[in-house]
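Morning. Coffee machine broken again, so started the prediction first thing and wrote up yesterday's gels while waiting. Chain of 936 residues, entered below exactly as on the submission form.
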Amino acid sequence: MDGRRRTSGWSRLPRPAGPGLVGPGLVGRGRERRLIDGLLAAGADGGAALLLWGEPGVGKTALLEYAAEQAGDAALWARGIESETVLPFAALADLLLPFGSEFRELPGVQRAALESCLALSGEPLTNPYAACMGALNVLAALGEKKPVVVLVDDLQWVDPSSQRVLLFVARRVAGERVALAFTSREEPGEPGAPHNLPSVEVTGLSRSECGQLLRRSGVVTAPAVEADLVKISGGNPLALLEAARSLTPAQARGEEPMHKPPSLGRHLERAWSARINALPEATRQALTVLAAHRSTALAGLCEALGVLGLSLSALCPAEEDGLVASTGDGLDFRHPVLRPLVLGRAPLAHRLAAFGALAQVTRGPLHAWYRAAAATGPDAQAAAALSEAAEEARRRSAFEESALAWRRAAELTEDRVARADLLHRAASDAFLGGSASSSQWCEEALRTTTEPSVRADIELLLGRIHTWNGEPARAYELLAEAARTVRRTDAVRACVLLAEAVVPAGMDGRVIAAVRTAEDSFRLASESGPDRWLSMALLGSALAVSGQIGRGVAMLGAADGHCTGDPVRNQQLYALAGQAWNWVEDHDRSRRLLNSAVESARRHSAPGVLPFTLAVRSDLEARVGHWTAGYGDATEALHWSEELGQISCVGYSLACLARLDALRGDRVRCEEQVGRARREVGGYGIGCLERHLTAALGLAALAHGDHCAAADQLEQSFALVTAQGVGNPLVVPCAADLVEAKLRTGDTARAGEVADWLEERARATGLAAAEAAAARCRGLLAASYEAARAAFAAALAAHERIREPFEQARTLLCEAELLRRYRHPAAARAPLASALARFESLGAVPWARRAAGELAATGAPPTAPAAPDGVWEQLTPQEFQVARAVARGLNNTEAAVSLFVSRKTVEAHLTRVYRKLGVRSRTELTRLMASGELVD
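Came back before lunch.
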């Protein structure tokens, strides 16, 4: 961040005034000013963020200037500069370095991460999200002293690492006295507001406002000319003023026709180009150096000008013409659009000379980028310098910037093998940084090399990219083909490729292919290397889904003995193994692995696979009856999936939420979750998703007695389950629901067919839950009272072997309904009372209503509703996660680190938790959660 300005205390970064801001205030913009006033008020009261977006020159910066005037000394500025997008954390450094004294109060991991990313320490940044939390807590600490207003201009040009931190903060400022206002230009071909923030489009001024702006600027034109200027500019203040200033006196009076360019961009370019061309040649060359310079500071600029035999005075004509302006610490273009225009129109010789001169007077990453820009062909030394810059950025977890450096180094590298390696590194870091370029660069690397082992490593990465970007079918085919190519020459590589292919095969709903692929991977595994236990774990998981429980448990058990490594590095494997143990009914082992992965990810601020792990744990919690805990996990999983751009996990998280809503009987909410999953994820063709969504819709309909709709949805789910080779009835528990729905619609024959399948699967798998569900179905289908009683007795005996309170309550309800139907109301009361208590404690409202109705029909007196889990339903998912963290013994600061929120947010949530639950201390809260078995 060579030559960048540093200040102390609350600061405003000086910059030229934006168009539309004249004298004491804005022209027009009543709506936008009201929004900004509301933002500042909300920020002072408890946190808010707003994005102002629109085309260049429309007046976004002027609105930030208005916000700064209203905020006074509470305003902090950060500004994106196009030429600085390759400098990691440049904008964040401008914003936070003046407040380094606040870093001492941060939790250790956050302080270390923030100091690393801001180059205050030489330690590598291993936890980028700890840096995000550190930034949030610094701003929160400032906000405790007085409200803070962060103004970020030209977000699209803020370096990606700073952008990630600032957007992370903007999504988490609720409860803090911090307001953030961003501006960003509309990207060509991508209209709309990016970044999922509250936003408003800044559009052109009205006809009368345009006239007012012209008069304030000293421009006088004939009315017809003014109307033409408004039409040409579309009300864009910058375009309006530039077009007006380009008029001859005769054109302004309407005596000569105006030139009407085909577009706003062409008009601005024509107007500015004419002014640039009129400057002396030395000034034009000096402007090229200013445009190439990655800073507004004078020091480096003067040195570079000196290398070319120029001085600062060469820029005086441009300053007098209004093309450049003083910024307080140096010079900058009056509008950001001028920088690329000057560079683009400069002669090649001027550009190369400017970059060469800047390379001579700088060091480190800046030197590397200037030297690369000055290269006219392959340049090994420039490539080596860029590689060093990439390594430095990678150590600071600035993966987007390191990816760009690797990519440019590849362009400057002649050797094809070395170029492929650099492209592979670029793609790997781009994937870690969430860039869409990762797959494109993998493809380019594959076209560059024919070396089988290098291609295999690239294809391994590309397969992983396709998997998590929601293209599992494509990922599976790619990985399987890559393994076939190298299996004869490199068995270990082939083993790893096939193991990687198991996940997308399962995600795509190709269970048989997943098992076959996992078995193939295991056959190729070494005797004792990490590839062996990786293949064993994935084979165990695939076998569990297919219903081969005995073999699956053996493989999982053998792999479990090796799962002693770093749960952060191996988080995905822990999650997959934990999911498989849940499917084979070893809930304790499942919880141990999942909790280990979740807590390690939280402790080390490494959320890469956290959304998937939380979603898997949500499924476990739903099964064992901890629905509030499961909802909290699934909600957090969804938030992280969105944050990290993991399309597959967005779908999985929504499916988990939909099932929990169905279990509770919230049909409307369930349908909303399913609708969103289909809209946002359905188009990606993730084959396993739809079977979960239709199962949730079917269960929700069944709960409300809509048996025809339930049967329709559950038939679709069951058809997918059988077609995709899912032989484990617990993976998608739809069969027993389908039997009940078919029976209640009078289709006994179909109900019997599905019950036969379920019974066969129960015998083959030996799973207690499947056995209980199959026996309950037999009880419902039984032709005699005695056969039904025997079936229900068998079901209840199976329920005793596994904890599934909801399914056990359903069995008790069905048994009691049978007893009442056969005129044994007194005998039905005990199972009905037990079922009602379970349903009420779970919060299964329609099921509890049905049980209560049956119980009343037996003549039993009304009972007081059960309380336990209904207590937890008062809490929002975020409040529950805070309560859970505190119950684990974490203090507020530790809980904040664990949950990626600020300490103040934890305090606010905890206050509401105490009030809602009627507890007065952490000890009481812990006891209450422990009584509900909700402490990890």
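Confidence is low (pLDDT under 50) at residues 1-17, 20-24, 188-193. Going to sketch it on the whiteboard this afternoon.
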